[in-house]
Amino acid sequence: MSEVLDVSRPAPHVARVWLNRPDVRNAFNDDVIAALTATFETLSKDEDLRVVVLGAHGKAFCAGADLNWMKTMAGYSWDQNRADAQRLADMLWTLDQCPVPVVGRIQGDCYAGGMGLAAICDVLVAVEGATFCLSEARLGLLPATISPYVVRALGEQASRRYMVTAERFSAVRAHALGMVHELATPETLDARVDEIVATLVANGPKAARECKRLVRDVSGVPVTAELRGETARRIADIRASDEGREGLQSFLGKRAPGWLPQA
Fold first, then answer.
1. Could you tell me if residue 211 is inside a domain?
2. Do 46 and 158 sit in the same domain of this protein?
3. Contact call for residues 18 and 62 (beta carbons, < 8 A)
4. What pLDDT sits at residue 210?
5. % of residues, the chain, pLDDT over 70
6. What confidence score (pLDDT) does residue 2 get?
7. Which residues have CB under 8 Å from 7's CB, separation 6+?
8. What's the half-sphere exposure (Cβ side, CA atoms, 13 Å) at 167?
9. Are residues 146 and 248 in the same domain?
């Protein structure tokens, strides 16, 4: 276990990354940003990996920026603020670009920068009692670096409201808005996350990565002749690949595909 992160490989093809500062509600500082960046850079290069679970120890998922870190930033020059914000923006981008699905496990409050972490997750599971908040405007700030991911996950209209009001809203509300995919009780949270992880591990490893990339590449793009041609090329590529052929042959032969343990 590291000082700020708890990183483990609890099962084949699965990585678990836990924020590990429960005494400060897993708030961000320079160390957390650097550790998350380095960890996800390493995980993104792991060809054996099929899923990452992103969670946190303690009662809160992430309370946003660490107060001591914010006190330090209060004396920064513009150039220092710009460099600091760039590190956070680059960390979020690194997590968002992870080639395998990321499953978010939200066991408690998720505020400010924590919402940026939640928003990059491909599947988000939250306990019903968790609270979300884009709290920056209360401090005279704005959620700039997390905004591309939050607006994408929460939707533009809901983001308009919750960014400008800085209101808290429930996990139930986040689920109704589409940001949270699954709600759970504290007792069922881990079991539900494990079920989703097992589903992802059972899928074709290359297909899962390509599905994630496909969503990113076609979202918001006009359906032009070029896009139609590109999507046709992609399905042809994977049909003709070893994994695609094995998947079809195993389905027709009523057996487990080669990427799963054989009975």
1. yes
2. yes
3. no
4. 96
5. 98
6. 59
7. 15, 16, 17, 18, 39
8. 11
9. no
Residue with tokens 């000082």: 3
For residue 257, being part of any structural domain is answered with no
Pairing outcome for strands 5-11 and 14-19? antiparallel
- Taking the C-alpha atoms of residue 62 and residue 4, their distance in angstroms, rounded to an integer, is 12
User: What does the block give as tokens for 184?
Assistant: 């759970």
Which two three-digit tokens encode residue 50? 């099929």
**Nearest residue to 92 (alpha-carbon basis) of 112, 107, 113:** 113
For 179-192, the DSSP string reads S--EEE-TTTHHHH
In the 8-state DSSP scheme, what is residue 214? H
As given in the structure block, the two tokens for residue 85 are 């914000």
Q: Which amino acid is located at 217 in the chain?
A: D
**What are the pLDDT digits (tens) for 223-252?**
999 999 999 999 999 999 999 999 989 999
- Two tokens at 31? 């160390």
Are 86 and 156 in the same domain?
yes
Check which CATH number belongs to the domain holding 178 and give it: 3.90.226.10
Residue 145 tokens read as: 């670096």
User: In sequence order, what are the residues at sequence separation of 6 or more whose Cβ sits closer than 8 angstroms to the Cβ of residue 118?
Assistant: 61, 104, 106, 110, 124, 132, 153, 179
Q: Residues 43, 132: one domain?
A: yes
Which residue positions in the chain have pLDDT lower than 70?
1-2, 262-263
The pLDDT value given to residue 263:
56
Handedness of CA 217, 219, 220, 222 (dihedral sign): positive
The 3-state secondary structure of 224-263, one letter per residue: CHHHHHHHHHHHHHHHHCHHHHHHHHHHHCCCCCCCCCCC
Which ranges in 66-170 belong to alpha helices (H)?
Answer: 67-73, 78-96, 113-119, 147-154, 156-165
